Amino acid sequence: MALERVRIVLVEPSHPGNIGGAARAMKNMCLSRLYLVRPEAFPAPEATARAAGADDILDTAVVCADLATALHGCQRVFATSARPRQLAVPVITPRACGAAVAQASAVGGVAVVFGREDAGLTNAELSLAGQLVQIPTATHFSSLNLAAAVQVLAYEILVAWNAQIVAIAEEAPEPIASHEALEAFYVQMEHTLVELNMLDPQNPRRLMLRMRRLFNRAHLENTEVNLLRGILSAALGRKYRWLEKVRKPDHL
Ligand code: SAH
Questions:
Q1: What is the pLDDT of residues 128-162, one digit of tens each?
Q2: From the CA of 132, how far away is ligand 1's center (Å)?
Q3: Ligand 1 centre distance from Cα of residue 208 (Å)
Q4: What atom in ligand 1 is closest to the CA of residue 79?
Q5: DSSP string of 42-99?
Q6: How far is the centre of ligand 1, averaged over its atoms, from the C-alpha of 154 (Å)?
Q7: What is the layout of strands, in order, in the sheet containing 91-92?
Q8: pLDDT, tens only, 55-113
């Protein structure tokens, strides 16, 4: 799945518990690639404890000496910040970020970068990003716990990714049965109903019209028409097998 191309990058996290919390949040949301830039303590028992079973994310975490190394190979970079900065980088919501990440990860590497617990990201680090993401908060209490911020972004990425899957599925539905295929189905149905003595050809009344109305309402797909035709054939097959038995009883 293309979410494998999404990296969560933590820059100089000082509390190993937050690394574990971030790993857990990631695993809950189908993200797996954690990058740590100069973590103060890692691996650490506190990280493992807070990961609560997301040990695989910790085991495969990549520790880097600087942010540029952690971003190597990424086409799109998003940086998160609790404070609006006076930078020329556009600020977007987590929702817009989720959509952009889901879309971009279908074609290349994407990184979402998180800063230090005490000081966030430096302006130099922020400027490596194409976009800044700010989680909306109370005006005078805007700083989330690092792992909680990872959770918000990871959730938005997964929601957008799932919506994208649905959109792709809706774009390419099963082909709707053609007019000719439906007509052939109705001919077979009429024949079958006559054979099963459910339709009197001398007095058909409105049965076939009602059948047409019913199935036209369903916008049948090709596979569904084939399925129904299979059922009709099976019904007739049974009748013929039964008739043969009646005509040639076993004891003769
Ligand atoms: N005191 C720091 C905040 C650090 S919180 C500061 O003022 O920048 C640690 C990290 O969590 C931040 O660097 C950011 O990556 C993320 N974070 C916390 N709150 C956030 C918010 N409201 N919007 C976006 N990211 C946030």
A1: 898 999 999 999 999 999 999 999 999 999 999 99
A2: 11
A3: 67
A4: 15
A5: -S-HHHHHHHTT-HHHHHTPEEESSHHHHTTTEEEEEEE-SS--SSSSPEE-HHHHHH
A6: 15
A7: 62-64, 33-37, 6-11, 109-114, 74-80, 131-133, 91-92
A8: 999 999 999 999 999 999 888 999 999 987 776 778 999 999 999 999 999 888 999 99
